[in-house]
Amino acid sequence: MMYVHHYLLTLRDCRALRLTDGYSLHRAVYGLFPDVRAGAPGPSGILFADKGGSDGLRRILILSDRQALAPEHGRLESRELPAEFLNYPRYRFELVVNAVRKQNGRREPVRGREAVEAWFLEKAPSWGFDPHAPSVQVADIAVDVFSKADGKKVTLSRARVTGALTVADKERFTHSFTCGIGHGKAFGCGLLQLSPLIF
């Protein structure tokens, strides 16, 4: 069972949670859920995307494999994801990606809109879907730099990719949706946001 949550935060809530960077947002989102991994490595079961603010509210979209706890700050609207949600053949999508390539054993960011688009189109089949290439758009390219609790510096490149897709491999597609895509998932990348396309 998967759950979809909309975490709504006023400016006062953001101040109370001390939301200043990618790590503080990670801390606030992960604090909504019991840690069921018991220290073992592996997927957290939590994906999120910062949808930004409007009407005085900051909105965080969250997908999780378990129910959330009641938040100390802000408002959480939660519902179960319908079992049939992943049964459609085509979707409109939005995705914040950390586009990287391995070079000399290190992850190097993919730079520029055209390069990110080419990277995305190349990688998409491994995620179980075929994007409709003319519909794909890349926007909001940015680099976030922040420090984790242990003082380790994190540099994360982000790009928002939108468009339409056709499911090519249901099993891989389901895995991509439930487990996320690419790197940086703990910091708001990798959540495949979907709207079924019904003709």
Tell me what the structure shows.
Strands 5, 8, 9, 10 and 11 form a 5-stranded antiparallel β-sheet that branches. Strands 2-3-1-4 form a 4-stranded antiparallel β-sheet. It has a two-stranded antiparallel sheet with strand order 6-7. By secondary structure, it is of the alpha+beta class. The protein folds into 2 domains: 78 residues, Alpha-Beta Plaits, CATH 3.30.70; 113 residues, Alpha-Beta Plaits, CATH 3.30.70. The model has no long low-confidence stretch (mean pLDDT 91). The radius of gyration is 17 Å and the shape is globular. A hairpin with a 5-residue loop joins strand 9 and strand 10.
Number of strands: 11
Helix/strand/pairing category: alpha+beta
Q: Spell out the helices and strands N to C.
A: EHHEEEEEEHEEEHE
In terms of quaternary structure, the protein is single chain
The average pLDDT value, as a whole number, equals 91
Number of helices: 4
Q: What's the CATH first level of the largest domain?
A: Alpha Beta
Keywords, separated by commas or semicolons:
2 domains; five-stranded antiparallel β-sheet; alpha+beta; Alpha-Beta Plaits; 199 residues
